[in-house]
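Intended use. Records like the one below are meant for learning the mapping from a protein sequence to its folded structure. Do not use them to infer anything beyond what is encoded.
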Amino acid sequence: MAEAVAAQGAKVALVDIGNIGQTNYAAAKAGVAAMTVTWAKELARHGIRVAGIAPGFSDTRMVARMNAKVREKLVSMIPVRRLAAPDEIAQAALFVLQDDYYNGRILEIDGGLRL
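Structure written out for the chain above:
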């Protein structure tokens, strides 16, 4: 679609918070983030907090089964140049659960990759 619009002489800027070719993923992620804010506002009066965690690539069995070259390329794209340890994701979950003032936000634990 973008090529067709650009071919007509239009200036087009597409913004995506996912990977190339993953518009569906980016749209779903943005929807969850918006839902988190809305629910946090709606449910706060009932004493219910709503928050999310957006983990980046973690050192899991699934990632360990990836082709070594693909995994190396993946890690090279992460600014801190390593995968998250599962314990680091667990610490983020504890923070969200224990901090009664944390509400309506998505905590990104992704080493700066920003998927």
